[in-house]
Amino acid sequence: QVQLVESGGGLVQTGGSLKVSCAASGLTFSNYDMGWFRQAPGKEREFVATISWSGNSTYYADSVKGRFTISRDNAKNSVYLQMNSLKPEDTAVYYCAVRRFVLGARDLARNYAYWGQGTQVTVSE
Length: 125
Hints:
Blueprint (H helix, E strand, L loop, with lengths): L2 E5 L2 E4 L4 E8 L8 E6 L6 E6 L6 E3 L7 E6 L4 E6 L8 E8 L12 E4 L3 E6 L1
Parallel strand pairs: 2-11
Antiparallel strand pairs: 1-3, 3-8, 4-5, 4-9, 5-6, 7-8, 9-10, 9-11
């Protein structure tokens, strides 16, 4: 009974900031790498960022590098995505996910086992 619940999405103007959160339950959270993906209407899920189980390693898509920061708090079973300098192209539903294999490519959605319901982020002109 793994559950991931995202929150913190909303409407923001270009250049603004948002921080989305993901609260996990039903798993030993600190054992797993975590990731953020996003999906816009009519498009496939797109990798955004991932963080190792300990939080000491992160990896970002080129499109968000330098603007977004992924972090985690294992004591709170939570992972976060701080989004700065937002652009209209960042508009999407943002999903939290649990990585299933350490040997699988970390930027492929098929290598993540569990997904939250998503939280909508809309960036207006």
